[in-house]
Specification:
201 residues; alpha/beta; four-stranded parallel beta sheet; 10 helices
């Protein structure tokens, strides 16, 4: 059987299903799906099953027979499925910034101190409304070919808070923070209630 891992690079680095093919979700959407077989079932792995469902539906629209694991890789490992390495992001990235959630007052204070706000939500949500002067970097929807350009929107050596509003974007907000840390920025944590900020304006 053909197993496709559509998670982010940072997730794949932690652990994987043996002999699986890793292609990021955004890269599949950007055209990498063309490299997948059309003569066998493609089984899709993601973390929780949410992205997997979206990937499988996309592949079916391209006439690729595809199924996804409803419980995701996390459920697969919990059930005792074959796996190499770790599964949980929190097992490798244990630092406080990966779990830190700012409240509205704290966020406003940090913005007044010059912290850069990076919105991890998909482009359509950002376009509909965003915190003034925030940057939009939706990693999950950014193809690898455009990643550097997207990350370079953030001026050098800044403190960062990422913004999210649901399960997927809030995980993405951690990955965004990690990628920006690797570029030399300081990731402080996330803000997950942008509607509160909007209501307080």
């Amino acid at each position: 059987s053909y197993v496709l891992d559509a998670r982010e690079d940072e997730e794949f680095e932690i652990g994987k299903f043996p002999r699986s093919r890793h292609i990021r979700f955004a890269d599949l959407l950007a055209g990498e799906w063309i490299s997948l077989p059309t003569d066998q079932v493609v089984y899709v792995f993601c973390w929780s099953g949410i992205r997997g469902k979206e990937v499988a539906e996309f592949l079916r629209s391209k006439k690729i027979v595809s199924r996804f694991l409803k419980t995701g890789a996390d459920g697969w490992v919990s059930f005792g499925g074959l796996w190499e390495g770790g599964i949980k992001f929190s097992s490798k990235y244990t630092e406080a910034q990966y779990t830190r959630l700012f409240n509205l007052d704290e966020l406003k204070q940090k913005i007044s101190e010059g912290v850069i706000v990076v919105d991890s939500r998909m482009n359509s949500k950002y376009e509909a409304w965003h915190i003034p002067d925030s940057l939009n970097i939706p990693i999950i929807y950014t193809p690898t070919s455009g990643m550097e350009e997207s990350l370079f929107q953030v001026p050098d050596g800044k403190q960062i808070i990422t913004v999210c509003d649901d399960f997927v974007s809030c995980f993405d907000a951690k990955i965004t923070g990690l990628k920006l840390e690797r570029k030399g920025h300081k990731f402080l944590g996330r803000y997950n209630k942008p509607w509160e900020y909007r209501g307080a304006q």
